UniProtKB/TrEMBL annotation:
Family indicated by similarity: Belongs to the glycosyltransferase 2 family. Plant cellulose synthase subfamily.
Listed name of the protein: Cellulose synthase
EC number: 2.4.1.12
GO cellular component: plasma membrane
Transmembrane segments: 761-782, 794-817, 829-848, 881-904, 910-932, 944-962
The organism of origin for this protein: Papaver somniferum (Opium poppy)
Manner of cofactor binding, per the entry note: Binds 2 Zn(2+) ions per subunit.
Subcellular location: Cell membrane
Amino acid sequence: MMQSGIPLCNSCGESVGLGSNDEAFIACHECNFPMCENCVHDEIKEGRKVCLRCGNPYAAATSLVNPTADNVEKDDVSVNRSTMAHHIESYQDVGVHARSISNFSALESESNAESGNPIWKNRVESWKEKKNKKQVISKREQEPQLPVEQQMEEKQPMEDVQILSKTIPIPSNKITPYRIVIIARLIILGLFFHYRVTNPVDSAFGLWLTSIICEIWFAVSWVLDQFPKWSPVNRVTYTDRLSARFEKEGEPCQLAPVDFFVSTVDPLKEPPLITANTVLSILAVDYPVEKVSCYVSDDGSAMLTFESLVETAEFARKWVPFCKKYAIEPRAPEFYFSQKIDYLKDKVQPSFVKERRAMKRDYEEYKVRVNALVAKAQKTPDEGWTMQDGTSWPGNNPRDHPGMIQVFLGHSGAHDIDGNELPRLVYVSREKRPGYTHHKKAGAMNALVRVSAVLTNAPYILNLDCDHYVNNSEAVREGMCFMMDPQVGKNVCYIQFPQRFDGIDRSDRYANRNVVFFDVNMRGLDGIQGPVYVGTGTMFNRQALYGYGPPSLPSLPKSSSSSSWCSCFSYCCRSKKPSKDASEMYRDSKREDLDAAIFNLREIENYDEHDRSLLISQMSFEKTFGLSTVFIESTMMEYGGVADSANPSTLIKEAIHVISCGYEEKTEWGKEIGWIYGSVTEDILTGFKMHCRGWRSIYCMPVRPAFKGSAPINLSDRLHQVLRWALGSVEIFLSRHCPLWYGWGGGRLKLLQRLAYINTILYPFTSLPLIAYCSLPAICLLTGKFIIPTLSNIASIWFLGLFTSIILTSVLELRWSGVSIEDLWRNEQFWVIGGVSAHLFAVFQGFLKMLAGVDTNFTVTAKAGDDADFGELYMFKWTTLLIPPTTLLVVNLVGVVAGFSNALNSGYEAWGPLFGKVFFAFWVILHLYPFLKGLMGRQNRTPTIVVLWSVLLASVFSLVWVKIDPFLSKATTITNNCISIDC
C-alpha cells in the first residue's frame, strides 16, 4: 500500500518512498517525474543519467554513482524483471507527457491506471494468446499428410479446401509467337541502328544526328515498355466458395471488415451529387453491413459537402434496402436510373415496378434538395456559413480550421426503413493551420488511415475517388478472394481493379479509357510482381500501409542482448551473424532503408514475452506513428478490430487528435508509412515503396467492371490531367525514390518490375526527342534535305523488317489482350498529342521546381458535366499546352505545301525523294488529327487565337522557305554546268 500523498513510481509501480528530508523522493527537480530511488539507480547503472521526461540530469545522480555492494547485488538479481517493466512504463509516460502539451491529458488519465498501463499489458497478453495458438498449430503440422487448410482446423468440409482464386496464364499459342517477335524486333533494331550510325548523311549531318539520337531514345523507351509485358496472366475468382467458407449458416460471419475511403476537395468542381452517388453505392455494397465503414474526406472543409452528406445519409435509409431486396446493378442511383436497358429483365417480384417508381420519385426529390444546396453555396455570405444551431461553421476558412468528425450512420446511428442496421458513414475534415505543410491528397489519405484505425480499424482499406462509384456490388468479395486466401493473400499489399469510365464518346477521341494501359500493361505486370497503384479502385492491406514487410521475409535471429535501444534496433534491421555470401550481406545492410516499419511482425515472434515487451518499448513507436497510444495499439492488430482497452467515450477525441495538423511532425508519416509525400502522383510512389519491401500486388478484372468513374472528355481538361500525371513522374525522377537507384540493395524488386517503374518516371522525357522528331519532316521539306541517304538493297531489308516487326508486335499484342485496333490507334495518337504538349511542360515545370523552387499547383479536373451527350467534348478552353502541337501542325502543313511547290518547279526527278518526306510529314499530321479536330470545335469554328497563331507561323516559315530558295539555286547551277544535250 502506498503512503498517503506519496505518488507511485512510473517504472515499478511501487511507492517512490521518502527522501533524506522525510518527504517524497524526487528523481528530477525539473519536472517532478515520479520514480523511486532503486529505479533511478537502475537507470544510472545502465548509462542513462537524464530524466526520461524532460532530459535534465537526475537530482540523485551524484549520490548514486557509487552504490554499495549490497545494493549492487540486489539490483543484479532484479534487473532482468524491473528493467522490462521500467522501459514499458517510463517510455509510455514520455509519450503521454508529450501529448499532454497538446491538451490531451484526459486520454492519459484514462489509459494509465493504478495497476500500470493496460495498453502495453493488453498487447503482451495478445501475443501470449497468439503464441499458444501457434504452438497448437505446430503440433497439428507434425501430423503426416494433412492439407494446409486442415492444419488450421481439425475437420473441415471439402469445399473449404477449394481455391478462392486461380491464375490463368496466356495460352502458349498466343504468347509464344508474341515473345518471338519481341526478340526478333530487338535483333532487327540492333542491325537497323548499325546501318544508321555507319551511314551518315554528310549534306544534312545535323538533321541526321538529331534523328539518330531520337531513334535511340525511342528504342530504349520501347524496351522499357515492352519487356514488362513478357508474361501476362489472367485471374479468376470464386466468390461462391468465399461465402461457403466464411459465411456458414448459423455461425458468425468470418469475412474481414473493410474501410472505404472517399476523398474530395472542391464541391464546386467535384459536384456533391456525384460524391453522394459514390457514397450510396458503397453503403449498398453486397457485404455484411457490420463489416463496412465509409469515410469521406472533405479536404476543402466545405459546409456544402457536409450538408449533402446529411441528405445522403437520410436517403440511404431508403436506397440501401431497395438495392439489396432486388439485387439491382449498379447501386449508384444516378447511373442506375439513367441506364438505357430493360430494367425488368430478371426481375420476377410483382411489387418491383411499383417500388422502383416510388424510389425514382424519392431520388428526384433528393436531387432537388442537393441541387438547392449547391445553388445556395454559389455565393458565400460575408460573415461565413452558419449551421442550423446558429453557430459559425468551423471550416469557413479552408486554410485555418480545426479538425471535424461526424458519424452519420453505424451501429448506434439511424437504421434503414426496415429497421436493419446500416454501414457506418463518417465525415472527416482534418485540421489545417497556416505554417503547416498539408501534402494535398496524400496528407488527407493518411489522416483517414489514422481516423479509421481509431474508430473501426478494419484490416483492409478500399479507396475511391469521389467520382468512382461501385459498379459491381460484389467487388469487395472479388478482392477478398485474394486477400483472405491463406496461400495467396499473405504477401499481397493491394488489389488493383481496372478503371472504367462513363460518358465517353464511342470513338474515344482523346484515349480517355486508357484501354491499352489497363488491359495490356497492367496484365503484364500482374505476371511479374503486380500492377502499379493508380490512385483509385484499390484494396489495401492495412499492415502494408504501416510499412511492415510481408510475412515471407526471412526471420531475424533472436538477439542475445537487449541492453540498449541501438542494439535492439540493429537486431531488428539486420542479422547479428554475418551472412556467408557478400551479396546477402549487402542486401541486409540495405534493409533499414527499405523497411519503413521498425520491424516485421513475424520477427517479433522469435523473442520471448519479456524480451519482446522490452524490444517493442525500445523501438520508439511514437517516433514512427505519432503520439497516440490508441493508434499505436491498433497498428499491432494484424487482423484489425478496436482494442479492448480503448474507451469508446474517448475514441472521437483521439480521432480528432490524430488528424491535427502537427500530428505528423517528426514521424515517419509520408516518408516511410502511409501514402508517400514528394509527388503529385503519390499513388505511383506509394505502390513502388511497397514493392521494394517485398510485397506483391494483384490485378483483379471481374467480368462486370468493379468500379466506374467519369473522365474529362474535352481536350483542355484532358491535357491538364495528363500534365499532372507527367509532373508527378518527373518529381519522382528527381527524388531519392527514383527507381533508377532506389532499393537496389534489398533485392526484393524484380528486374522487369523495376523496368516498368523506370518507364513510369522516364516517359515524360520522351517529349523532347518526340517534338524534335516531329519537326524533322517540315525542316526536310523546306530545305530539300533528308535524314536518310540513298537506300541500298540491304538497308531496304532492315527498314522493311523493322516496320514488319512493329506491325506484328501490335497485332500479336491485340490477339492475347483482346484490345481492339481502334483503341490501340487512339492510344498511339494521344501518345504523340500528350508527348508534344503536356509531357513537355511537365519536364520544364519539374526542373523549375527542383532548381528554382517554383511549385506549380495543379488544378482539380472538373467532374461530370452537362446533361447533353458528350457536350463537353466540343468545349474549347485555350491553354498554353495547345501551343506546341498547334505549331507542329502548321509547320508540317506549310512544309507539305513547300515540298510540292519545290517538286513542281524541279521536274519529275524531285518526286521520288518527295514521297519519303511527305510520308514522314503525314505521319505527324495523322497522329495530331484528333488535336486538330478538337481545335475546330463543334461546327468547325476555329478560335481566333488559333487563326492568329496559324497565320503568324505560316508567314514566318514561308519567309524562311523563300529565303532559302532551294529550287532556284539548283536550276541556276544546272544551267551553268549543263553542256550536253542529255545532261
